[in-house]
Amino acid sequence: MDRVKIGVLGTGAISGIYFKNLTRLFTEVEVTAVCDLFTEKAREAAEEYKIPKVYETMEEMLADDEIEILLNLTRPNEHYKTTKAALLAGKHVYSEKPLAAVYEEGAELAALAEEKGLMLGGAPDTFLGAGIQTCRRLIDNGFIGDVVGAQAQMVCHGHESWHPAPEFYYQAGGGPMMDMGPYYITALVNLVGRVKGVSGMCTKGFAQRIITSEPKRGTVVDVEVPTHTAGLLQFENGAIGTVLTTFDVYYDRQAFLEIYGTKGTLRVPDPNGFGGSVSLLRPEDGSFKEMPLLFGYQENSRGLGLADMAKALRTKRDFRADAQQTLHVLEILTAFEKSSNEGRYLELTSAYQRKKAMENLPVAGILD
């Protein structure tokens, strides 16, 4: 297969693992260009990962006919305008999460991609890793029977104690549901299916945050978004899920995700990772038993979704982290706050169909 040419927009904190995996693990793609507002950062990435082209502006990179897919690693509140520009330039786009800051913008992007016959999708791709794919195999093969419920929690006290530039987590497009929620909601829809409707309640525990990490230690940040969200999910198959995401709580355990069935309970690993421990409780056992991981990609494999997109581009098959998924997840994420503001249950409008599960292949970095 001819390698698919990738252009990377943005060299922030998440970019390092993408560059590493796209240049060393996934052999069917080739990073040919990089661009960042700070050109020196782009040059440093190009030198480290042997990327041939550095562009000073997004417009210059989008004019490069060699680039087939744009990897959008800009900040969440910039995803809409940058992804739209790339689609208008005729590029397929894989975006970091979320697809956009508001649902209407995400729906516009999905419609534009469809109109132009372009592929659009994005993160998170952790659902393609060994942990969640093992859980999907267990659920699909009936190990917990029919799914009747799910519970997900992401509990922490925010990112200002460790992140070098945490302001955007408390601005439009940020908050725990938009930041960490995509991992949990993406895992849930892949394991349980489409969400029919939601109810949510949101609040803001602190009006301001003080950054304690370097280099912005002591900076005061005004909080513009909800930082504590509790929601109910009504799945199309009749199952009911609960979800909690918060930046307001001190706790010793951040991730919690369980799926409940008529024949057992499945404890899902942290959906922010690719591997982790999978445990199954069946009534005949009486306690949780750790299950072997049945798939590859147990380590940090960010870029797996993009590699899958690239393979789909060449082979004309569906790809797994597509716009239907990212748009449905975005509608769920944003519907919780809308439900809270309006004080009512909201039926969702976006379509969603689970894609084919991952296949085990003998060579890491080459997909089915």
SSE blueprint:
Layout: E1 4-9, H1 15-24, E2 29-35, H2 39-49, E3 53-55, H3 58-62, E4 69-72, H4 79-88, E5 92-95, H5 103-116, E6 120-122, H6 130-140, E7 147-155, H7 176-179, H8 181-191, E8 195-203, E9 208-210, E10 220-222, E11 228-235, E12 240-246, E13 255-261, E14 265-267, E15 278-281, E16 288-291, H9 304-315, H10 323-342, E17 346-347
Parallel strand pairs: 1-2, 1-4, 2-3, 4-5, 5-6, 7-12
Antiparallel strand pairs: 7-13, 8-11, 8-17, 9-10, 11-12, 13-14, 14-15, 15-16
Helix pairs in contact: 4-5, 5-10, 8-10
**Sheet with the most strands?**
9 strands, mixed
Query: Which consecutive residue ranges, at least 5 long each, have pLDDT under 50?
Result: none
CATH topology of the largest domain: Dihydrodipicolinate Reductase, domain 2
Provide the number of structural domains: 2
In whole angstroms, how far apart are the ends?
Answer: 12 Å
Shape: globular
CATH architecture of the largest domain: 2-Layer Sandwich
Output the radius of gyration.
20 Å
